[in-house]
Every structure is written in C-alpha cells, then in structure tokens.
Amino acid sequence: MGDVKTGGDGIHDDERIMVELHKIPARIGRILFVVTIHEAEQRGVNFGATVRAYARLVDEGNNNDELIRIDLKGRFSSMTAVVVAEIHRNSRGGWNYKTIGDGMTGSFNGVCKRVGVVNIVNI
Predict the structure, then answer these.
(1) What are the distances in angstroms from CA 25 to CA 16, 31, 57, 89?
(2) Beta 81-89 vs 54-59: how paired, if at all?
(3) pTM assigned to the model
(4) H helix or E strand, kind and range, residue 97
(5) What does the pLDDT look like over 9-29, one tens digit per residue?
(6) Burial 73-83 (b: 16+ CB within 10 A, else e)
(7) Could you tell me if 79 and 50 are in contact, meaning their C-beta atoms sit under 8 angstroms apart?
(8) Using CB atoms within 10 A of its CB, is residue 118 exposed (0-12), middle (13-18) or buried (19+)?
(9) Angle at CA of residue 116, ends 110 and 122, nearest 5°
(10) Are 113 and 92 in contact (CB under 8 A)?
C-alpha cells in the first residue's frame, strides 16, 4: 500500500501489504514477508538507526488480531533485512503462519536468494 522511504512517524503502520489468501493460486504454497531498509548498504544504515520500527502480521478478518510483532530495532539493530514471517498452505488447503525473525545484512533480492525464494515480488 505504498513505500515510505523516509521512515514515517514511527507511531502508525506506515507501510502495509494486504494479502487476500483466497486469491493466491494453488501452485503457490509459501509466502515470506521480508523487511529491508531502502538502499541500506549505499547509505550505511541499519535498523539500529530507526525509531520504533516494527513489523507485524495482522488478521483483518478477525478484529485486526495481531498474530506476529517483531521489534526491528532491538535484536536486529545491526541488520539491514529481516525475514519476518511465513504463511504456508497446510494439508487441508488452508493457511498457517509462523514467526521467522531471521535478521541479516544485504539487499532485498540478496536476502531472497539466501532463503531460497525463486519468484520474487518486490513491493
């Protein structure tokens, strides 16, 4: 729902990705959510330079229940990218989620290659 490259206000969700799981083709079995700092390596910044940065997974269909929340400044303060969460199809055709919380340095595409993502959608 837009890319805030200046950091936003740190109080509200400055960027949002909405996924309508019922519209995901059956051939897609896993979706990873990766957060990176725009041009972090070129600018020499990491999550330690952020104010109140977090990533979360919310179920809007269930009263905006917060399923996952990761503070990006805390344990990821020296990182430039975090694989936040994964949603994957279960054996019944529904979806499950899990927290990943794997921090690293590098670009979005570099991080995706390291975690084995073949089809990259950069939002």
Answers:
(1) 21, 12, 21, 11
(2) unpaired
(3) 0.78
(4) strand 95-104
(5) 555 666 777 888 889 998 888
(6) beebeebbbbb
(7) no
(8) exposed
(9) 50
(10) no
Quote the CA–CA distance of 5 and 74 in Å, as a whole number: 20
Residue, of 34 and 109, whose pLDDT is higher:
34
Torsions phi, psi of 112, nearest 5? -60, -40
CA dist., res. 80 & res. 44, Å (int): 9
Residue 66 pairs in a beta bridge with: 58
By CB neighbour count within 10 A (0-12 exposed, 13-18 middle, 19+ buried), where does 17 fall?
exposed
* Choice between 23 and 50, residue whose per-residue pLDDT is larger: 23
- Return the higher-pLDDT residue of 120 and 31: 31
| Segment 60-78, tens digit of pLDDT | 888 889 899 998 888 898 9
Q: Within a 10 A sphere around the Cβ of 85, how many other Cβ atoms?
A: 22
Phi, psi of 53, deg, nearest 5? -80, 135
User: Which token pair is 112?
Assistant: 């995706």
